[in-house]
Amino acid sequence: MIGCQGYRYPGGLTPCRHIGYFKTMSLQAKKSFAAVDYEKCDPKACSPEKGDCASAVACTRKVIKQIDGRFEQPVIFQDMCMACWDCIEACPLNSVRAVHMV
Ligand code: SF4
Ligand code: SF4
Predict the structure, then answer these.
(1) Which ligand is nearest to the CA of 55?
(2) Is 64 helix (H, G, I), strand (E, B) or coil?
(3) pLDDT tens digits for range 22-72
(4) Does the beta carbon of 91 lie inside 6 Å of ligand 1?
């Protein structure tokens, strides 16, 4: 399963496993963005002592965040993603990938 903001539903609502549904801009205008693979992402494995997401730390724009706190999987606010891929390079478990919409 890929990141929780990866799909746009009718009415501008985007599903998110953390906070339910929220309004968002159309991802049709966003050609590329980062997405978390929640099957692979494991904060307890990549940062066993602190539980910090290295990808969230690497994102200077604060687009990827552990909104549920340490030791929880991060969420990417893909509408704001600048497609710099710093988060992809930072993830030791290769749990973040680039999505290119056509
Ligand atoms: S995205 Fe990568 S660095 Fe961040 S918590 Fe998941 S496995 Fe760790
Ligand atoms: S691609 Fe860049 S802007 Fe987007 S979430 Fe990753 S680090 Fe942040």
Answers:
(1) 1
(2) strand
(3) 444 455 567 999 999 999 999 999 999 999 999 999 999 999 999 999 999
(4) yes
Q: 34 near 83, Cβ under 8 Å?
A: yes
* pTM (predicted TM-score): 0.77
Å from CA of 11 to ligand 1 middle: 31
* Residue 9 pLDDT: 38
Q: How far is the CA of 60 from the centre of ligand 2 (A)?
A: 8
14 lines ligand 1 (CB under 6 A): no
Q: Does domain 10-100 have CATH number 3.40.50.300?
A: no
What is 32-43 written as a DSSP string?
A: EEEEE-TTT--H
Ligand nearest to the CA of 54: 1
> Cα dihedral sign for 51, 55, 58, 62?
negative
